[in-house]
Each structure stands twice: as C-alpha cells, then as structure tokens.
Task: structure prediction
Amino acid sequence: MNESLAMPATGETEILPPTHEITVPEPKTLEAMFSKPAEIDKLLERLAKAARAHKPDLSTDTGRKAVASVAYKVSRSKTALDNAGKALTEEWRRSTALVNNERKKIEAFLDNLRDEVRKPLTDWEDAEKARVEALQERVRSSFVVPPAGASAAELRQRLEAIEAIELDDSWAEYVGDAERGKLQAVMALRPALAAAEKAEADAAELEKLRAEIDKRQAADERRKAKEKAEREKAEAEEREKHRLAQIEADKKLAADQAVAREREAAAIKAKREKEAADQLEAKLRAEAVEAEDRARKKLEAEQRQAEEERRQREADEELRTLARARIVKALVLSVGEKFAETVADLIIAGRVPHVRFEP
Result:
C-alpha cells in the first residue's frame, strides 16, 4: 500500500499500513461519533495501539524510513479525521463548538502520538547530528597550522603533535578528511619548520656578529669618552681662568662705573639745585612784579572810586541844592521863606515820614 489514504469498497478510509488497519466510519456513523466524545476516544486509542505496535529498527536506513513512515501515516490519519469532521452536513456544522473541540482534541492527540512514535528516530537524528558536528570540529581543529611568524619550537611541537595523531576507526566516515588534513598540515609544517630553523640560525649568527661589533664599538666609545673627558677638563680649566680674569675686569669696570655714576649724580644734583634756585628766583621776581602790579591796580581802583564818589557827592550836593531851592520856592508861596527852608532840609534829610527825596 502506498503513503496515501485509500478508500475500500465498504466506504471506510485506511489510516495505517495493512498490518495495522484503522478505518474511519461513514459520515452518518461519524456524525454520531463526533457527538459522543467517548467514541472518538476509542478511535484514538485504536490508532495509538496500532502506531505503537510498530517496533523501530534504527540500525538500518530501511528501518529508519519505516519509523518516519509510521509517523507520517499518523499525521495522515489526523488529516483524514479532520477532513471527515469538515465534511459533515450543514446541520451538524451549526454545532461548530462541539465539532471543533473534538477536532482540536484529535489534532493534539495525534500530533503527540506522531511525536511519540517518531521520538526514537528524532533522538537518533539529534545524536547523529551531534556526532557528525563533533567529527567535523575534530577534523577542523586537529590539523591547524600555526600562523606565519611562529617560532621553530612552536612549529616543531605542532608537527610532532600532528604526526602522532592516529587515523583509526574513531574518525568514522571522516577518516578520509582526517587523512587529507593530516597530509596537508605535515606538508605545510615541514618546509615551514626548515625555513624557521634556518632563519633562527641566521639570526643567531647575525646576533653574534652584532655582539662583536658592539664590543668593538664600546671600546672605541670608551676611548673617545676618555679623550673627550680630558679635552673637556682642559677646556674647563681654560674657561675658569678666563672667568676669574673676567671677574677682575668686571670688578674694575664696576668700580670705574661707580665713580662715574657718583660724579654724574653730583653734577646732576648741582644742576638741579641751580635750576631750583633759578626757578625760585624767577618765581619770587614774578610774584614781586605781580604784587606790585596788583598794588598799582588796587591804588588806581581806589583812586577811581574816590574820584567817582567825590563826583557823585558833588552831583548829589548840586541835586540837593537844586531840590532844596525848588522845595523852598514852592513852600515860600505857602508858609513863608524861613519855614520853607526848614521843611526842605527835613525832606532832603529823609526825616519827613512818607516823603522820600529822589535827585
């Protein structure tokens, strides 16, 4: 029988292989079964019993495919039952809640049954995947060659370690990859080791030559340093003699400069004193002239003022005389000459209340 679900002449659908046949009742019987959850449970139990009756053989590819086939047919049984539920009459579909609950139960149960049946194969596949990944990682990591620039000791140690790796049955189907990896690593390490050993030998010889050159250079530098020290000592002594002579010259120059500064200071002081005396004399002379000019101006002002006051007095006297004559003349006509003169004098003197004389 192939993987698809066949419909026998009786109208029932085959769920599992012929050795474990499970059939789905006709729609009318199925309708009653869906309304009775216990019937569905019995059907699921029959499916589980048939599926679990298969004994998995994981040692061969055919056996592993048989396990996958049983799991697949459990999924197909789930699909057949689900489709049967969907194909119910319109009247039954109106009771969707019950049908859908049973469909969900069927789906969950058969999914779990499928996973349960397939678990031995799944576990084997996971273990096989881990085994293959471990072998691949072993091939990758076992024959790694040190990077460029590694020392001869590192290359020799790595070459010995790779040559010591045994290519036994533990490599399984990757023994060919291991052989190729080992061969490639050895073929890369041997010339690299030879080149590194030669380079290190050349470097050692070069270091020896450099040490000899450094030794000769050190002796030459010591000789030059000694000559330099002697030369610097002589130069220092000469500089000290020159410094002492310069100190004496500086002292003499400082003394001469001090005498010159004292003479210059005395001359400046005498000049400043003479200038101060001349300025004081000029100031006193200017102040005397200014005082004389002020006295003259004051005298002239006093004389002008006295003259002005005299002229004013004379003018006032003339005005008083004229006014008196006018007043007397006016009063003579009324009170007589003698009384009129007396009244005029009183008015001019300002002794008559409410009467003021204005020239």
